[in-house]
Design goal:
The structure is a homodimer. Chain A is mainly α. Chain A has two domains: about 400 residues, no CATH class; about 130 residues, STAS domain (Transcription Regulator spoIIAA), CATH 3.30.750.24. Chain A is built from 25 helices and nine strands. The interface between A and B is large, with 65 and 65 residues.
Chain lengths: ~575, ~575
């Protein structure tokens, strides 16, 4: 039976795999396979470490790196995005589950898969309803501030593993107090192991690649070896811990990680649990989506490709649902990992599927080797990874460019550090929106005059311009809507309350993109008030869509003056006619 | 000791009474006293009825009409506003207290004075912090829809008194179902009394004034007599109920109303109660403030006076605190009552203080006469008063002018009727803001060309204009900020993805009132992408404040093209130079 082509088109739209799979060849296969090997090596320690960060058993990190990658390969649009557990989302997962006050490991695991399921449902719903634009309401500086603060929080939360103490907390203050409280219980062997791993990893990051290049290695090989640093640290510290039996000296180890492929899991459908996790799920979905889309679109642009944000939502949603049914927790596209994937030459999303196979082998075969892996090593891996996210330059840039953006970033950072990730990102979003609304509610208004010898009008306070005492032209630099309708009235009334023999007021509407009903009522009120004072109200440069709208109302019939196509026409007609 | 003049000025700013009291004379006194007598006559039945609507004992309505009026006379700025219990705020009070599930009358009364106190604190805090602009975020159509729906709800809630049944509910559906459930318990005598009062009051409203005018009475006298209609109904129905002992036939009466001046009351300071009432207090304050300011400014404009919105907040806040300490409940400026006060010639806020004296006398002397007053009469008074608030024309106007405004009004009306006042007004506000943000996140963008023979540029799709294939000019009709930064990038990339030999892209910024950091980053990304494609990016008509901001960033250094003062300059410089 032949499928109608439009239906096939729709299926292809929702399953981008059909497109690239039909032209897949052996060249693509080789590139993808090489990239997959490199990403797999990088992902094994990361996935264990991020599960630890999320407060979950290590194997959940592995499980979150298998089926979700396959799901993204089928439904995602980015050719380089490497999906899986990431630092910020793991921290948010820890915060969300921490709120529930659960103690039993099985309840915690159930909450994690449920959270992944909720995120998946939210992402898919947003994708189907084409709500990807909602992510635009997270302003760039707020995201930058949030990521920086999260990086600091994550690093602080991992210090306990380096010190070998049992501290807790979801905010920087709690973490620091908890660490200070436990200062007498620091385990020197753990600290020695953790600190040297940390030092080694920092050196790998900064010094290894140049050293390898000096030794004459090809840049790409040097790069790959440098990325393998964490795996080296894992192997060496595990061996040391095993050989010297450090776990009996208080060094915390990962212990038994179940061997085998991911189990089939069912999320909880308890309305109470959904109610408690829903808001966290929304935030995790939005932050995960924004992080993922920003890296995917950056990488796509390098190859002149485009990603489809609404389909990305479906891809990430499918990943999270795959994670929920296979013992994982919320996932998204990771920044560092995707860059590695791209640099290693991944050509199609198949690279992700091959990575999944690699991690699958690791879960099947390597987990017994992880028994003696010290938690301090994983913590060191996380700290080194997240400190690269910390970048306070956004504060400096925002301060010099815009105090409003600065306020939003500053609040986001302070609230994230002081009250946790959910408070921080919510405050950042609400503050960005609130400040935008506040600005538009008190718009900039310029009185303008004619720049001599042109048909161009500019602010009388900034430029040398022609004006006439009988004619006041006000350019309102904002759409007119309910929040500034009252302001508009006040502003016009204030301007005409003077000794000047004003006969005409022109509202120059070149920057007015919208006049809503509240503003229309204000314009009617202004028109009536000016009529009582013997002053005519005119409009100029009204845009097409705004004019269309005004024609549906009585305003134009009642208007005492005229509507001029250009401000120059208005000026020519209304200036005192000289003899 | 002489007070420093600036300090006296500040005190005067917060106590407007000092200003008008210093020039008060016997003419003003006469005008104010006459107005006060008329308003007192109108206010006695209203205050009793609205207390009933709020689910409170009748005397609380009287108490809310004494000290609050004095407080407003001292701190308010409107010369005509008549403060006291009003319909919508009474309904909101009923909803707020209903949420608490209290049963004991003393707990209910305590919750009411606490709610008044909370509203007072919120209003004063808003006034001191100059947050009056927050009221601007209630769009006109949303308020109109809310008032209409509230009027319907109020009328429906009073039907039980007319029918003599014991129905309950906070939404239209609940009320109707409850009435239908109780249909067998209708008291025919109550219904007869209620229905005839209703008919009489409607006739008074529509037919009495013309009839009196026909009889040769002066218009003002006719007006005053018509306003006294409710008092007449109160007197007559009370007498009938007393003479025919209707209360023993099931006609519900007001019963004992304590005689005497208002008691001193203390609001509760229980954090739990404050927590439960805070949101309601915020909504009551905002709605009360908006209602009050809109009538006050309308009346002030008629006499070429102005009111000071931030000082109004303090006046209304003081009123509510006065209500809280004297056994009242939340108050605000009433529409009908203020118009009567104004028409009756009130010249200063002293009229309000005189009204307070009148109500004080009523509380001292007349309360025993209210014993046999049927609740049905008060219900009829309310129904007639609120049905004048019901005006569905806002739906029609919004539909023809703007679908977005229509959506907000429609949701407000439906949610108010279906889920109660608090849900309705909250949804209206959030929806207005959400829709505004949605619109600005997908701005109108026009490609423009030169209107031949002018220096004026208009949309190529709407006007006959000159263009050149090497030059694309896009006019973005919105401020560039985080919510539309991504849209801007997509839009430019889409436009240049064509066969046309584009060399220059000009962004015409005449309607761009703001470029925030997110948008700046998008502009930088666009600039880089276009540079890679060999296309130059230019800006034209950048406004002063926006340009100042851009100069603080690196963008202007990196820009491949130029910034032109006018679009005409840009067009002249960039068009292909003909030989």
């Amino acid at each position: 039976m032949k499928m109608p082509s439009s239906m096939y088109g729709r299926i292809k739209q929702y399953v981008p795999m059909l497109e690239w799979a039909s032209v897949y060849n052996s060249n693509s296969f080789t590139s993808d396979a090489v990239a997959a090997i490199i990403v797999t090596i990088m992902l094994i320690p990361q996935s264990l470490a991020y599960a630890l960060l999320a407060g979950l058993p290590a194997e959940m990190g592995l499980y979150a790196s298998i089926l979700p990658l396959v799901a993204y390969a089928i439904f995602g649009t980015s050719r380089a995005l490497a999906v899986g557990p990431v630092a910020v989302v793991s921290l948010m997962t820890a915060a969300a589950i921490g709120n529930l006050g659960l103690t039993s490991p099985s309840d915690i695991a159930l909450a994690a898969v449920t959270l992944a399921f909720i995120s998946g449902v939210i992402l898919i719903a947003m994708g189907v309803l084409r709500l990807g634009f909602l992510a635009n309401f997270l302003s760039h500086p707020v995201i930058a501030g949030f990521i920086t603060a999260s990086g600091l929080l994550i690093a602080a939360s991992q210090l306990k593993h380096i010190l070998g103490v049992d501290a807790h907390g979801h905010t920087l203050v709690e973490l620091i107090f908890s660490l200070v409280d436990h200062r007498d219980m620091i385990n020197p062997i753990t600290l020695g192991l953790g600190a040297s791993t940390l030092a080694f990893l920092f050196w790998v990051r900064k010094g290894l690649k140049p050293a390898l290049l000096n030794m004459g290695l090809a840049p790409r090989t040097a790069d790959i070896l440098a990325k393998a640093g964490p795996v080296g640290a894992v192997v060496v510290t595990t061996l040391i811990t095993f050989l010297f039996d450090l776990s009996s000296h208080g060094v915390k180890i990962v212990g038994t990680v179940p061997m085998g492929l991911p189990p089939l899991t069912t999320p909880s459908f308890s309305p109470a649990l959904w109610g408690q996790l829903l808001m966290s799920g929304v935030l995790i979905s939005l932050i995960g989506f924004v992080e993922s889309v920003s890296v995917a679109s950056t990488l796509a642009a390098k190859k002149r490709q485009r990603i489809a944000p609404d389909q990305e939502l479906i891809g990430l949603g499918a990943s999270n649902i795959a994670s929920a049914v296979s013992g994982g927790y919320p996932v998204t596209g990771g920044f560092a990992r995707s860059v590695v994937n791209f640099d290693a030459g991944a050509e199609t999303p198949a690279a992700g599927a091959f990575t999944a196979i690699g991690i699958g082998f690791a879960a099947l075969l390597l987990t017994p080797l992880l028994f003696f892996l010290p938690k301090a090593t994983l913590a060191a891996t996380i700290i080194v990874a997240v400190l690269s996210l910390v970048d306070f330059s956004v504060l400096k840039n925002a301060w010099s460019y815009s105090k409003v953006d600065f306020a939003a970033v500053f609040a986001t950072i302070v609230l994230t550090l002081g009250f946790g990730v959910e408070a921080g990102v919510s405050a950042g979003v609400l503050l960005s929106i609130g400040l935008f609304l506040y600005k538009t509610s008190k718009p900039h208004v310029a009185e303008v005059g004619l720049v001599a010898g042109t048909e161009h009008f500019r602010n009388i306070n900034r430029h040398e311009v022609e004006t006439y005492p009988n004619l006041v032209t006000l350019r309102v630099d904002e759409s007119l809507y309910f929040a500034n309708a009252a302001f508009l009235q006040d502003m016009v009334y204030d301007r005409i309350a003077c000794e000047q023999p004003i006969r005409h007021v022109v509202l120059m509407c070149s920057a007015v993109n919208e006049i809503d009903m509240s503003a229309l009522e204000s314009l009617e009120a202004i028109n009536h008030r000016l009529r009582d004072l013997g002053v005519k109200l005119h409009l100029s440069e009204v845009k097409g869509p705004v004019m269309d709208r005004l024609k549906c109302s009585h305003f134009l019939n009642d208007l005492t003056g005229q509507v001029f196509l250009s401000q120059f026409d208005a000026f020519q007609s209304l200036k005192p006619q000289q003899i």
